[in-house]
Structures are given as structure tokens and as C-alpha cells.
Amino acid sequence: MDVNVKVTVEELEEQERTLILDSFSYEDAWRLGTLLVELARGRQAPVAIDITRGGQQVFHAALPGSTPDNDAWIARKRRVVERYHASSHLVGSRFRAKGTTFEASSRLDPDVYAAHGGAFPLRVRDAGVIGVLTVSGLPQLEDHALATEALAAFLA
Prior knowledge:
The chain is an alpha+beta fold. It has helices at 9-18, 26-42, 68-84, 88-97, 102-105, 140-155, and strands at residues 20-21, 48-53, 56-62, 119-124, 128-136. The protein is built from six helices and five strands. Strands 1-4-5-2-3 form a five-stranded mixed beta sheet. The protein is globular.
């Protein structure tokens, strides 16, 4: 994804319809997480990476240049996915498409929830959302692009 191009709500929804797993085990979490770490290292991206499954953190990595603040962003973005069962970028984009913002209209505490790109639902076919993949440390479009690129590569 070219991060300099705005992504439409429809394009984000299409990502969610296509980036679906057949299953997702602890081993899969490790493989997806290490794949994402390698992509980020290759770009010298100062990110923190997090994967949860069933409410349990099953992978976490902090690369050089990331800070504890990235972990706080991960938690806030992850909560948006857990609540809406949609990527944090899609949720924020839907509010913006209505001419408002998540912060102004969601009625949720922005210290607890952040509808900024970077958290993507781990959706298993016939089971629904079972976890969340989150990246934090880059501008939100780049966080989202890195997460979805890794998930697409993992599925390939």
C-alpha cells in the first residue's frame, strides 16, 4: 500500500473481507509476529508490535527507537478493534467520512481508546474476530500499512 495515498472506507472494508485466517494458533502468532519484526527491521522502523489472541498477549516486540508510549498506543488502538471488530484505521475513517471524529462523537474516553491506524482484527473464518495485530511507532497510515502487509504475506 502506498502510504502517501489516502485509503477509502471501502478499500479498508475490502481489506477486512480478504485478510481472513483459516485458523490462528500460538505458533501462528509467533510466525506472524516474527515476520512483522523482520519487515520492520528491514525498514529500520522504530515500532512496537503486539498480537493478542482471545484476550491474551501472545507476541510482543519492541524494536530500537520505540518507547513505552508505543505500548500505551497499542493498548488504546487494540481496544478499538476489540469493541468495534474492525481495524482502528477503519473505525476512525468511518467517523471522518461522517464529517466528525472518533474523539468528538464516539463517547469513549480518548485516554482509553484511539481510532488511529495500526490495529487490525485477526478474523478466523467461521469464528469471527479472535484477536488483534497492532503496530505502533510510525504515522498511523504507515502503522496500518505495515500490519496489513505482514498479514497479507502471512496468508500468502
